[in-house]
Amino acid sequence: MSSTDGSPHPLVEALGDRHARWTSIRRDLHAHPELAYEETRTAAIVARTLRASGIEVHEGIGRTGVVGVLRAGHGKAAIGLRADMDALPMTEQNTFAHRSTHTGRMHGCGHDGHTAMLLAAAEYLAATRCFDGTVNFIFQPAEEGRGG
To answer: For the domain 10-140, what is the CATH code?
Structure first.
């Protein structure tokens, strides 16, 4: 993404130095998939990451879900941004280094990516507070059928 003058977009520049960390989080989540209502490790990573950014954290939502609440300014407007966290009950056939370490469980629908991307958005918004109101970061458990 670039600005109208061809230079890198300011958002890309602001996020660029964090890319490696978010990729690492996504790969870690991919390697450690958890099925519906078993997302305790994932939820702990989410809660710890949100708290590190100064975001208010609510755990145990829908058993293993997490909600982060971030306020900026004095606005009354609110928005919810959601990511699903659970994996699928299937064996991964990939050979890359961050493939599932658990036979019979894998992130085949991208929930590891969804979770990492929402954490990245939360971190960015917490750092910049470039809005006026409340953002609710909803990390949903059990989206794949059982609770979704």
So the answer is: 3.40.630.10
